Amino acid sequence: EDQVTQSPEALRLQEGESSSLNCSYTVSGLRGLFWYRQDPGKGPEFLFTLYSAGEEKEKERLKATLTKKESFLHITAPKPEDSATYLCAVVNYGGSQGNLIFGKGTKLSVKP
Amino acid sequence: DVKVTQSSRYLVKRTGEKVFLECVQDMDHENMFWYRQDPGLGLRLIYFSYDVKMKEKGDIPEGYSVSREKKERFSLILESASTNQTSMYLCASTNYRGEGYTFGSGTRLTVV
To answer: Quick one: B108 exposed, middle or buried, by C-beta within 10 A (0-12, 13-18, 19+)?
Structure first.
């Protein structure tokens, strides 16, 4: 069964304290892995798509990487406005057209 | 930018009412999806559609139906609302290759 597991469930950081969020996955054939940011009461906001092992993408203080079994979202020198829930999701070749399989998210809190 | 618009941010309905949630996208995407999001359970797929008048069940279709009469519009219908359908409902769309995944801002439905 296709599965996505995110860890930790919650992460508290001080402003400027870099860290990483993990997303491990088991799928029959990975079509793509997505990272989203979600603020309370709002829909997920797209951050990155990664398609193959070794791929990396960056946006401001965020960097996403991908291996054959997991993805990391690295946060460098975070600021309080980075506080949000970060969601990881995959699309597989064997599944329905474009159906995302989500992890349960990591809730990040950055204290000033 | 792709825009996915959900007609209501907040709704309060009574048990037994028929409820319509509307979603419109403006990028000519073939695929549209309805998810619900609950604390501790993450996002779960209710229904999706890959073409006008086409629909497929997701992981939790019971108690829901959908309608897609036009390419840009995908409606979720709660035939007889129940309290266990209180949730955040999220609509999303992609092209036929599963690219450009974009979510709406969500509808917080409360059934009393």
So the answer is: middle
